[in-house]
Design goal:
two-stranded antiparallel ribbon, 3 helices, 22% helix, alpha/beta, binds magnesium ion
Length: 169
């Protein structure tokens, strides 16, 4: 396993795209407070940059989804701290949308907690690999079917600190 030499998205390209997303999210939420919910761990870098480009009041929370080792079934959502979902406009922030199973499950669980609205923002999207019908409201970049790393995304816990996006081969 090696890091590819090719850069998928540079630091500058990422920064520009994050500014655009921030403008779009701001325009769509004028006059509202937004509750931003990051899915750990991969989304933390993107989320930190994104919220600083959003010009409406924001609250931030994090959650982690634990996956059962024995099966593909997702078993548990752990909120990092008490975070109010009921009555809020939620923006779920993900690092990457692949099969969509994680987000579909999360969406379903969050809906039972009575938010006013739920929107989904994913930094990366692999539309070719989708297994469930889920359509994110905001997408940073579509990416090919490679294992992408950098800007928060890991391979076996490493490479989250790369400021650009590349992949392992
Ligand atoms: P899915 O949409 O298949 O339920 O799962 C998406 C999750 O799989 C992401 O949140 C991420 O943790 C992981 N994942 C999928 N593709 C990649 C990839 O190319 N790179 C990294 N680092 N994680 C990925
Ligand atoms: Mg993830």
């Amino acid at each position: 396993m090696n890091l590819a030499k090719e850069i998928l998205k540079s630091e500058d390209e990422i920064a520009e795209r994050v500014r655009q997303l921030g403008r779009q999210i701001t325009a769509d939420h004028e006059g509202r407070e937004l509750s931003v919910l990051g899915v750990l761990k991969g989304s933390f870098v993107f989320l930190a940059d994104l919220i600083r480009q959003i010009r409406v009041p924001v609250r931030v929370g994090f959650l982690e989804i634990t996956q059962s080792r024995k099966s593909e079934f997702l078993t548990e959502i752990i909120f990092s701290s008490s975070f109010q979902v009921e009555g809020t406009h939620l923006l779920v922030v993900e690092d990457i949308l692949d099969t969509g199973i994680t987000l579909a499950y999360l969406h379903q669980q969050l809906e039972t907690r009575g938010p006013k609205s739920i929107r989904v923002c994913t930094f990366l999207d692999k539309p070719d690999k989708r297994k469930v019908d889920i359509h994110p409201d905001y997408v940073g970049f579509p990416v090919p079917n490679r294992h992408v790393v950098g800007y928060g995304l890991d391979y076996e816990g490493r490479f989250r600190n790369l400021p650009y996006l590349t992949y392992v081969e």
